[in-house]
Write a structure and sequence with these properties.
Number of helices: 16
Number of strands: 22
Structural class: alpha+beta
Strand content: 15-25%
Distance between the termini: 32 Å
Largest sheet: 9 strands, mixed
Length: 540
């Protein structure tokens, strides 16, 4: 999507994860002229590489009361303003025979102190509520956890930022902060496709680049101590559990199982990694073993359930030299005004926190921006629904929806009306059978949601994320993208997409997953010749 940029904005936001997207939305809603810059695609970093858990805050109640309180407050807000992104599953914290049952009382008291509903229930009731739970549990607490789609949430914030006048540009990397004496006055950015360098100016630049924010700050000679904490996760082939299942103990590896759409996700691990590795996280055999072994303690069926893929993200934590795992570091929000901290005007950093608290983080940094720019307008993001969540579809509308339309409604909410319009029969054809993605939905995403390639399309529609991992839909989607402005790079784009699918399958390539990978290889290499476009080091 081509964007005609202005030369000067009130605010430049660096980073298209959920925090940057939420900040761009808040700034734009308060009347500021905004440019959001993302070096790749939205939600490509930590935002798109987590459980998809709508935290109640219970996980942090014992160790981090401030974060727990923030989580439950934002949990209730997101259920209202982002309802089309949320699956209200509720959750269980279970105690197993090897755990300390006395911890349950401490946990419940801590939850209640943070304002989190925490009801102790009989283990037998827990087994009725969630048949997949480990039947040997000796304690259970019901809490208001849920699941949320980070890709839908991020794009909804981007869409609303644009509705309120923001400009948004992807695949542009900020390579330099433009500094005039003691003030940041703009940025230089490089087009990732053409290599072209562009300069854009602003009264204030917001660093919302997550773990990469430490590198952005370094461009100005500023040190922001961050702790890159890698977390690995596994996606299973179907939805084993209907409620979020947590282990009732201090946070440890593989103690959360989240139902997400048609699958479920177990996570996570936590290990410090070098910042240089954060752009290419790989899951190890040891991490898979830990996730499988511990995950089966939550829900025994995981031991015999097909694993679709493994993936990993990096948490943007504020550094500590005393915790090698990052488990005890606060998930609290950190707002840095570099004018008061470092003597550099026109530059602020928002970091720490978590996906759950993105809206609050955006509000805090936008309050600071408005104060600096002399803008007197209150935040309205806590009460204004995101695009897609304005209201529920009527029963009459839903009755007219096809299978694909109903699947799209789960992804786009009320914006499904933009997809379900009178058109030719081809628009109703399925591109991805696993996720119910139609030709019309692909075209809608390409035309209105900053889709530059097939991996972007996957994040917008879930195309290729189902059981076959792109085996049947990839070539169809590539063909549709050819009809737009992507024809010159379609073959290489298809190769990159298949290679990216293999990256997640490789750590769990046994049994049905290995068979699937071999079939994909035969289809796309032997029949389609895609291997000639794969970059060195890709799938062979």
């Amino acid at each position: 999507m081509d964007v005609k940029l202005k030369n000067k904005y009130d605010v430049i936001v660096i980073g298209g994860g959920i925090t940057g997207a939420g900040t761009a939305r808040d700034c734009a809603m308060r009347g500021l002229s905004v440019l959001l810059i993302e070096r790749f695609d939205f939600a490509q970093g930590a935002t798109g590489r987590n459980h998809g858990l709508l935290h109640s805050g219970a996980r942090y109640a014992v160790t981090d009361q401030e974060s727990a309180t923030e989580c439950i407050q934002e949990n209730m807000i997101l259920r209202k303003i982002a309802s089309h992104c949320v699956d209200e599953t509720d959750g269980l914290f279970i105690t197993l025979p090897e755990d300390d049952l006395a911890y349950q009382a401490t946990f419940v008291e801590s939850c209640q102190r943070a304002g989190i509903r925490a009801d102790i229930i009989d283990p037998q009731e827990a087994k009725i509520l969630e048949p997949a739970v480990n039947p040997s549990l000796i304690g259970a607490v019901r809490i208001p956890d849920a699941s949320i789609d980070p890709f839908r949430l991020t794009v909804a914030n981007v869409v609303d930022a644009r509705i309120h006048g923001a400009d948004v540009i992807t695949y542009h990397e900020v390579t330099e902060l433009i500094i005039d004496q003691t003030r940041v006055v703009g940025v230089k950015m490089r087009d990732q496709y053409t290599g072209e360098i562009r300069e854009v100016y602003a009264d204030l630049t917001i660093n919302a680049a997550g773990i990469w924010g430490m590198l952005v700050a370094k461009m100005a000679g500023i040190t922001v101590n961050m702790f890159p904490a890698k977390g690995a996760l596994l996606i299973f082939g179907h939805r084993v559990n209907n409620m979020v299942i947590n282990r009732c103990r201090k946070p440890a590896n593989a103690d959360i199982l989240v139902p997400d759409d048609n699958v479920c996700v177990i996570g996570t691990t936590s290990d410090r990694v070098p910042i240089e590795t954060c752009d290419d996280m790989r899951v190890t055999d040891e991490e898979v073993e830990v996730l499988l072994t511990e995950g089966a303690q939550l829900a025994p069926a995981l031991a015999t359930t097909r694993i679709l893929r493994a993936y990993a993200g990096v948490r943007p934590l504020v550094a500590s030299d005393h915790d090698p795992s990052g488990r005890s570091i606060s998930r609290g929000i950190v707002t840095l005004d570099h004018a008061t901290r470092d003597g550099l005007e026109g530059f602020v950093t928002i970091t720490g926190g978590k996906m759950m608290t993105y809206r609050l983080m955006a509000e805090m940094v936008t309050d600071l921006v408005c104060k600096k720019l002399g803008v007197n307008k209150a935040c309205e993001t806590a009460t204004t629904p995101l695009p897609g969540s304005e209201s529920k579809q009527s029963e009459e509308e839903l009755r007219t929806y096809s299978f694909a339309d109903k699947a799209a409604e789960g992804r786009h909410g009320t914006y499904t009306k933009e997809i379900v319009k009178p058109a030719d029969e081809l628009d109703e054809a399925l591109v991805c059978e696993c996720e119910g993605v139609s030709v019309a939905e692909v075209n809608y995403a390409v035309n209105s949601q900053h889709v530059n390639n097939m991996i972007d399309l996957r994040r917008r529609t879930r195309m290729g994320m189902g059981t076959c991992q792109g085996q049947l839909c990839s070539c169809r989607a590539a063909g549709l993208l050819c009809q737009g402005n992507h024809a010159d790079k379609a073959a290489a784009d298809l190769a990159d997409f298949i290679d990216e699918r293999w990256k997640g399958m490789k750590p769990v390539a046994w049994g049905a997953t290995l068979n699937e990978a071999q079939l994909i290889t035969m289809v796309y290499e032997d029949l389609c010749g895609v291997n000639q476009f794969v970059k060195e080091g890709g799938m062979k």
